[in-house]
Specification:
Its main location: mitochondrion. With 668 residues, the chain is α+β, with helices and mostly antiparallel strands. The protein is built from 15 helices and 26 strands.
């Protein structure tokens, strides 16, 4: 039988681990089964560079009384051999059993060695074999005991070494020089030092070593494995050019995080993004981009100070934005370019925040005010443009969004969120916090938990005035960012408003051309065909009170009736005849143990319907569609639904109550 311990890595030089390992002998309180260790051979070679040590260790038998009585001993002896090589900075350890050697063969091997890419890291691996030949007829029991003992020893070994490493630190021993004929141990407590090596630069290109101080200041806390993968990814992009410069470590780390530290996946994602940046001249966008006049006057967004974690804050008053007017005035491509300019500003501001606060700031905070959001924001060409923007940003600016504060969310918000959220990366979605009530500042866990009160805009109850002067058209857009950078003025953010139609450049963006069909949702929508009088019921079991049920469907053919029901009973989806409802059973009575919570609505072909309902109770919620019996043919529809967890919402949920709109394809 062969077992193998997991390979581990720690951010501590191997030489320190060697000193810590020596302190285990002859005994240590953390390993009470080791009763004694006697050195029986100790040889030094190559002027002290190599040392071989052989010990005989006395081990207490940890076994049930009956087994100890059968084998007739309370202790066993093991032979341990250590092979230390100071030149290569490795320590190999082998252990074999001396007792019962003719009946059982135990061989364990472990190794401490310096990481090949960073000598300040120590790697450790361990393997063992157990061969039970003949052991008093209890071979199976001994095998199980051996497995258990090996697992416990593996887990305990690293813990013991780290105990002695900390003990060395307390004594002032923090560094051991690389081996030399007169190698000495440096102690910060006693002040004894060897020749001080030259200070390492933050990035050593020759061997791709990352300085620990650089990591702490610019990258943040990383596990040794994550650091190793970051170095490996850097090697794949280290030959940059003036046309295609190599990415910095912050960028490499963002793409690694976006792909769960898979080097191959991060490489593919970053290569595609670098090519995209080259094709669209993204590296020049900060110097070349000219903000259109209509955007300067009617786009309600801008950078605004930092949150409590040091992140740059971008405020977007989406509820007052005339999506249709901006889209028809500047076009979808120009709105995308505006977004990319904002993202590039964000990258620059994150670096400046890192220097300002002396700690890594590698993402920003987005505060979205939805006061004024209505069904006109669900204009399909506008939603389609938004989805394109989200996809582009998710692909090329991963892990830049640290927190998203959604404030003053009205009742139609879950409809928009249902459509948009499916295109947002799951990790990014987890960073959204929703505040449904009008008082998002003082509510429990309100936004003042994340942004200082004097930085919260006055329209949200803070003391910072963001009202833009009437002469806004005379203020360049770049002044907004300069106000942010100065950190002594509030950013000037326009309140939005309707874009005058005489500024429209195109009337070609029509609702029917901008319709989002099922294929735009990458298979998220499902199709249903219903014969006249036939029902389709979607049963949704709810165990999360105050969560929000949202739906979006489009009728493609013939009239369809839609309603929503609730019962406290738990109902399983069944294959009924589709011409009767689950509530047609004898055990259901309308108004007694189930009720209709959204009144029936007739939906005509080419109408899109979105809605939401706060699921205040547990039980089963039923979305029901029926082809009108009077139809001369079958009905067709595409539907999608989602449940929004109550944990993501802060403040009042009443503002999110059932926002139902038929014919929402049309611009309002």
């Amino acid at each position: 039988m062969k077992v193998k311990g997991t390979k581990q890595m720690v951010t501590m030089p191997a030489s320190i681990y060697r000193l810590a390992y020596d302190r285990r002998f002859p005994t240590c309180p953390q390993m009470p089964i080791v009763l004694d260790c006697e050195i029986i051979e100790d040889s030094v070679y190559d002027n002290g560079a190599r040392r071989d040590t052989k010990r005989r260790c006395k081990i207490a038998v940890e076994a049930p009384y009956l087994i100890k009585k059968i084998i007739g001993v309370d202790v066993v002896f093991f032979i341990q051999k250590n092979f230390l090589d100071m030149k290569t900075r490795t320590l190999n350890i082998e252990a074999t059993n001396e007792s019962f050697a003719t009946r059982v063969e135990i061989f364990e091997k472990c190794r401490y060695y310096a990481h090949p890419e960073n000598p300040d890291w120590t790697c450790f691996d361990q393997t063992a074999t157990l061969d039970i030949k003949n052991f008093f007829g209890i071979e199976h029991s001994m095998e199980k005991m051996g497995m258990k003992q090996y697992t416990q020893t593996t887990l305990k070994g690293k813990e013991i070494i780290e105990f002695f490493v900390n003990e060395l630190k307390q004594e002032g021993v923090t560094h051991v020089d690389k081996w030399a004929d007169d190698a000495t141990v440096t102690s910060t407590a006693t002040g004894s030092t060897s020749a001080t090596p030259p200070e390492k630069p933050p990035l050593c290109r020759d061997n791709s070593i990352l300085d620990a101080d650089y990591i702490a200041k610019y990258l943040g806390q990383l596990t040794p494995l994550q650091e190793s993968k970051l170095v490996q990814l850097r090697k794949r992009f280290e030959h940059g050019s003036s046309e295609h410069p190599e990415p910095d470590y912050q960028t490499l780390l963002r793409f690694l995080r976006a792909r769960d530290f898979s080097i191959d996946k991060a490489t593919a994602m970053l290569q595609e993004s670098l090519q995209w940046r080259k094709e669209h001249r993204i590296d020049d966008i900060l110097s070349e981009y000219k903000t259109p006049a209509v955007v300067e006057k009617y786009f309600p967004g801008g950078w605004h100070h930092h949150d409590k974690d040091g992140r740059p804050v971008y405020i977007l008053r989406l509820g007052t934005m005339d999506v249709k007017g901006l889209l028809k005035s500047v076009g979808e491509d120009e709105l995308l370019k505006l977004t990319l300019h904002i993202c590039e500003e964000g990258l620059k501001l994150m670096k400046e925040a890192t220097k300002l606060f002396g700690k890594p700031v590698w993402n920003w905070c987005l505060l979205v005010d939805l006061d004024g959001l209505s069904m006109r924001h669900l204009w399909r060409p506008g939603v389609k443009a938004l989805l394109r923007i989200i996809e582009t940003v998710e692909t090329n600016y991963p892990e830049t969004m640290g927190r998203v504060l959604i404030v003053r969310a009205p009742r139609v918000f879950p409809v928009l969120w249902t459509i948009v959220s499916t295109f947002i990366d799951e990790n990014t979605r987890s960073k959204f916090l929703f505040f449904g009530g009008p008082d998002c500042m003082h509510a429990e866990d309100g936004i003042e938990q994340y942004i200082d009160t004097d930085k919260i805009p006055s329209f949200l109850g803070g003391s910072c005035n963001l009202s833009i002067p009437t002469v806004v058209e005379t203020i360049p857009a770049k002044l907004y960012t300069r106000c942010f950078l100065s950190a002594c003025h509030c950013t000037l953010i326009h309140e939005g408003g309707l874009v005058p139609k005489h500024l429209y450049k195109s009337e070609s963006i029509e609702e029917n051309n901008g319709t989002i069909h099922a294929h735009d949702h990458h298979g998220l929508y499902k199709a249903v065909d219903l014969k006249p009088g036939q029902l389709f019921e979607l049963l949704i079991r709810n165990t999360d009170p105050k969560s929000v049920l949202t739906w979006d469907f489009e009728v493609l053919k013939n009239d369809t009736l839609f309603a929503v029901y609730h019962t406290e009973k738990v109902i399983e989806q069944s294959g009924n005849d589709n011409f009767s409802s689950v509530f047609d059973g004898a055990d259901f009575k309308d108004g007694a143990n189930y009720k209709k919570i959204e009144q029936s609505v007739k939906c005509r072909p080419k109408e899109g319907v979105q809605g939401s309902h706060e699921m205040a109770s547990t039980g089963t919620y039923v979305l029901q569609w029926m082809c009108a019996p009077s139809c001369d043919g079958p009905a067709q529809l595409m539907y999608f639904h989602e449940i929004l967890s109550s944990a993501n919402y802060k403040g009042s949920m009443t503002s999110l109550q059932s926002g139902f709109s038929s014919n929402s394809l049309q611009s309002r």
